[in-house]
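Margin note from the TA: students keep mixing up input and output lines. Inputs are the sequences; the output is the structure of the whole complex. Example:
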Amino acid sequence: MSILPNILFAVLLIVGVGYFAKNVKKLIRNIKLGQDVNRSDNPSERWRNMAMIALGQSKMVKRPIAGFLHIIVYVGFVIINIEVIEIIIDGLFGTHRVLSFMGGFYDVLIGSFEVLALLVLVAVFAFWIRRNILKIQRFLNPEMKGFPKNDANYILYFEVVLMTLFLLMNAADLHLQNVDGGYGHFTQVGSFPISQFIAPIFDGMNSGTVYMIERAAWWLHIVGILIFLNYLYFSKHLHILLAFPNTYFANLNPQGQFDNLESVTNEVKLMMDPTADPFAAPANPDAVPAKFGASDVQDLNWVQLLNAYTCTECGRCTSSCPANQTGKKLSPRKIMMDTRDRLEEVGKNIDTNNGVFVPDGKSLLNDHITTEELWACTTCNACVEECPVNISPLSIIMDMRRYLVMEQSAAPMELNNMMTNIENNGAPWQYNQMDRLNWKNEN
Amino acid sequence: MSENISVPTMAEMMAEGKQPEVLFWVGCAGSFDDRAKKITKAFVKILNRANISFAVLGTEESCTGDPAKRAGNEFLFQMQAMTNIEVMNAYEVKKIVTACPHCFNTLKNEYPELGGNYEVVHHTQFLKSLLDDGRLAIEGGQFKGKKITFHDPCYLGRANNVYEAPRELIQKLDAELVEMKRSRANGLCCGAGGAQMFKEPEKGNKDINIERTEEALETKADIIAAGCPFCNTMMTDGTKFKEKEDTVKVLDIAELIANAQDL
């Protein structure tokens, strides 16, 4: 045997993994463009969340049909990838099913991979029908036109191709294992509960042809996996990796607790301190004054940016959003998609300008997310509750409202009236604070 | 009836050298809104009946800052918060009860970081604890056998995971508790949160409170129970829009209990 295939395989592997690693580096750099936020507290609770929500899929099953189908594909993905280890070793060293020394256990492994592959095919078919035939509202929202819709289907097609190649490869392998007198290094190993039904199509075929089919399926399968791996960075499918850090770093406070801006606290404390010297020189005269709220992705914190990359656009948030359900423009999913789009735009800007961001006259606010969307939110937390991987679209909406109000004084007029009332008389309506207890004596 | 209610203020208590068991945070709606004032009084009547030592801040109370914060005005929120905290810390307040989930959430979750550390409970939790301690007895009265559905306020439910206290109180009324299609963590907002109460909604094809009211009406309940003055307004408006205000009442849990005892 020539070692040419082994070298070719090694090169493919290095290129595939290398390009992916390059994009991961970019991904991490982009996420780090966000503001600092400390999420290192309570590691035990964080690990537990990750185990339950990402690994255990606990929030997925809230919608049982999609949840069940997802678990099949998820388990299939995780388990079948064990096979990739064997494929890599076989590819590098020209061995045949190198893990088969495990004997009976190997049979169980390959057998379960096959059963899972079939189940994945069935589940993916069901997903495709849900997305393309059934009229499920959350797949039909305006933000799902164009690439987002195609992206979802591409992922499904990828899975179909990979699973089919996997089964075809096994079927051909099985056929060669059983050729009278044996064929090459195809010794009888493994158990093939599914592909044994495909194998008969090779009956009567020239062993050389079957071998070519087996090799073709084998190569296409691993090349497909490498392409899929590299597609992740450009796709919503990135969630298969980021769901884990995302659930780990998610907010642990009660959902109703919104953060208190520290920059504001310092100002208010100074304002209320009778001993404060109004003419005192600032502690750090060169410091750039803090910007209140967020108008662009760099103003958001890194967890919010991680959220944006993690979002797989399932739309459970949008389908549970009271504003969206009643025909308002706001869609929490679109908030996440816009954030990612803008972050990518900023990242590309940095790439083309030798590592520095050159202002492009655009921002997340207005160019991607409109004020109409932001003001439609009731802060009800339904989107946060729904998200299967603990993304918070609400926190982005809030930070952008803060920018609108505190940097631009651009609140809707009625809200300005409400805030004026609170400032002047301590209530959102125009009632005198001195009348607060009048109810006591009223009938 | 209202002539009989006793509502001491923290200032009066302090002058007498007394410290109440709990501060009743009335909130802006509870103080000024005509509908919400009825809830305030109903709750006070229950407190009076159970001989609870409580006090209000009266004219020293000011908006918690919740609507300002949710609208994005962190400055105004923190000024309100720090002023309120100074007042409450001066009175050495330990425990607060409030009938407004927005005040509840803000006082409980957002005040501690600014120096206001109190035990904060929603009035349904407080009433439930009185019941458990045998300090309050609840009878069904006029609500016996009635169908009641409970609308989860976002800032009580999802925001703070309080789902059971209001439901257990309703069941104590010997009423039949019926759930809406979306309840507890899946509950649909009434449309008032996030400062929406104070503005017209954005353009859409329906108002949120109508959507929620329709869902409540689907249960064929006689009463929509609420635990928030803003939800109460939104759901009441919803029943009016659906021309059901004569047959389906929107009542706060405190009102249900006070009415059941003929207080």
